[in-house]
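Re: the request from the purification team.
They wanted to know what the chain is likely to look like in 3D before they choose a buffer screen. I agreed to run a prediction and write the result into the notebook, where they can find it.
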Amino acid sequence: MNPTRERRPSTLRRAVAAAGLALVATGVALAPVAAAEGPGYGATADALAVSWDVSPAPQAAGPAELAPSGPRLRLQGVGFRGGSTTEVRFGDDATRSVSADDTGTVEASVVAASVTSAPGTSVVAVGVTPSGSRRVLVGSVPPEPSGRGPADLVPVVAGGVGLVLTASTLRRRRRG
């Protein structure tokens, strides 16, 4: 048997495996991008996006006791008339007025302690569309983030598999 023929199928298998691994890693890395863009992407234009804001709270100018602190909820909704006022309500709490920007997007960051923030609590935004009709978006408070999850291990596992494949390829080349 020709040794060259025996190496080609294994090289082809490695190349196909590497291409598959790269494809899966790219898909895993890009999957959360559409959801991270906010409402209006990935068929979410008819929903109010409510999420926990993990970035540090903005610092208020003045005494520290006046600055709101604690976990924050972030709201995003699209389809309102630019510059219009939208009423936002958390569960049975009083409504709050939020202004839409020039593109008709409503965004707000609220201290969770100041509103009903139990997971599953309904959040309703009521405003006016560019055509003048009433627009109602509904969302709900998600569970609080609990730290690291299984999705955080995907890059580590993919990197480990890539390192093992690279090491085994180099080892075989040195032997042969």
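For the purification team: Residues 60-67 have pLDDT under 50 and may be disordered.
Please add any questions underneath this entry.
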